[in-house]
Specification:
With about 210 residues, the protein is mainly alpha-helical. The protein is about 75% helix and about 5% strand. It is built from eight helices and two strands; from the N terminus they run αββααααααα. It has helices at about 1-10, 25-40, 45-65, 70-90, 105-130, 135-155, 160-175, 180-210; strands spanning about 15, 20-25. The chain has a two-stranded antiparallel ribbon. Strand 1 and strand 2 (about 20-25) form a beta hairpin. The longest helix is centred in the C-terminal third of the chain and has 31 residues, at about 180-210. The N and C termini lie far apart (about 60 Å).
Length: about 210
């Protein structure tokens, strides 16, 4: 079947990095991931379709390496990507453009509660029902990534801090799993997240000054 051929090609080695085979899915995930975050920093709406392609590629990579929560997370990202794409295009109210803004206390409380519940639930699930060798780290990064992505669908500036925290865990996690190219990608993500935080803060200040 065509689908099986595509998956076979994506999971085949493209080259070796640090003595470990790097698949085509990981290589293409590296490229689309970098473009996705670069567009997000610039607040360009095309970050969402590129991001959807990126997470589908990474889903293949994570499942292959036993990062089951991260693999399942990519399907949720597809839904969030569609939501973010629609929200950035049409706004959260008819005729109202979505603007970059700070996270409110109420939103912080909601994100913290959601993140805590997700972490605990995923940790128990991965530890007891899957063969994951890194259940806690996988659960924490999954929860952080979900709440960070939701924050970015709403253009919340502090969502970049959540991504920075996730990336600081992702980098050693992927290195431990011998996903060296993906680990390097997340080093680049970390730098882009710091840049994104600066750029979005600047955009917020400029918007306030104009008003």
């Amino acid at each position: 079947m065509i689908w099986e051929s595509v998956i076979g090609w994506l999971t085949a080695p493209a080259f070796e990095a640090f003595g470990t085979p790097t698949t085509w899915a990981e290589l293409l995930g590296f490229a689309t991931g970098f473009v996705n975050v670069f567009l997000l920093v610039r607040r360009h709406i095309l970050n969402w379709p590129v991001g959807i392609l990126n997470v589908l590629l990474l889903m293949v990579v994570f499942w292959q390496y036993g990062l089951y929560a991260d693999a399942g997370l990519q399907l949720v990202y597809v839904v969030l990507g569609g939501y973010g794409w629609w929200l950035w295009k049409y706004g959260d109210e008819p005729g109202a453009e979505l603007v970059v803004r700070d996270t409110t206390r109420r939103e912080w409380a909601g994100l913290a509660l959601a993140g805590g519940v997700l972490t605990c639930a995923l940790w128990l699930f991965l530890d007891r029902l899957t063969g994951s060798t890194v259940p806690l780290a996988d659960a924490i990064t999954t929860a952080l990534s979900l709440v960070a992505t939701y924050g970015q669908t709403r253009k919340l500036i502090q969502s970049w801090w959540l991504w920075i925290a996730a990336d600081l865990i992702y980098i050693p996690l992927y290195a431990y799993k011998d996903l060296w190219l993906t680990a390097l990608l997340y080093v680049a993500f970390l730098a882009l997240c710091v840049l994104g935080l600066y750029v979005w803060r600047s955009a917020r200040r400029e918007a306030v000054t104009v008003r």
